Amino acid sequence: MLIQLLMQHPQALGPVLKNTPTWVWGLFGVLLTLGLSQVRTRSVGALRMALMPTAMTGLSLWGTVSAFGGSPLFGEVVLVWLVAAAAMLGLLARQSSPAGTAYDAARRSFTVPGSWLPLALILAIFLTKYVVGVDLAMQPQLARDSQYALSAGALYGLFSGIFAARAARLWRLAMRPAAPASALSNI
């Protein structure tokens, strides 16, 4: 596996990176830019807010299907993905939104405080996809190894569940009834 190979033979990193298709680096650049845009406080519309978890879930599912779609374990991998995503969504969606998060009903937009978490999650999904892709290129039989396949599926699901939970917390703000103007004047 890639991580073990690099720990035992760090000089293998050069050939691995050299054999990585160019489009992967383009995708990495786009994802890095997207993640860095999440670091500062911003105002985002409802549609744009929904795009991030949707795109990251799509990337996660693409990683799962491209790696294990031909494996006899595919159904189990998808089930583990779903369970992990649902568990993270259930655990984290009930938490309060970070301080400074707000919804402006008139503009249908959210004020979202900057956070490094989206960048970390984006990079985690990308690196999981990259490592799994390299591992399977070097050892295709890993797609049939239940420990490997189910662990990868669980990782992808965990990351997707975290993104979905962040979006759910924002939607909860949007669904909250607005306080009457008279109540606001008493604050």
Question: Can you give a write-up of this model?
Answer:
- This protein is mainly α and 187 residues long.
- It has one domain (24-93, 100-177).
- Helices cover 68% and strands 6% of the residues.
- It is built from 8 helices and 3 strands; from the N terminus they run αααβααββααα.
- The chain has a 3-stranded antiparallel sheet with strand order 1-3-2.
- A hairpin with a 4-residue loop joins β2 (102-104) and β3 (109-112).
Summary?
This protein has 187 residues and is mainly alpha-helical.
Domain count: 1
| Anisotropy-based shape | globular
- Helix content, binned percent: 55-70%
Number of helices: 8
Structural class: mainly alpha
Biggest sheet architecture: 3 strands, antiparallel
> Quick check: average pLDDT?
87
What is the tally of beta strands?
3
Task: Give helix and strand order, one letter per element, not per position.
Answer: HHHEHHEEHHH
Spans where pLDDT lies below 50 across 5 or more residues: 179-187
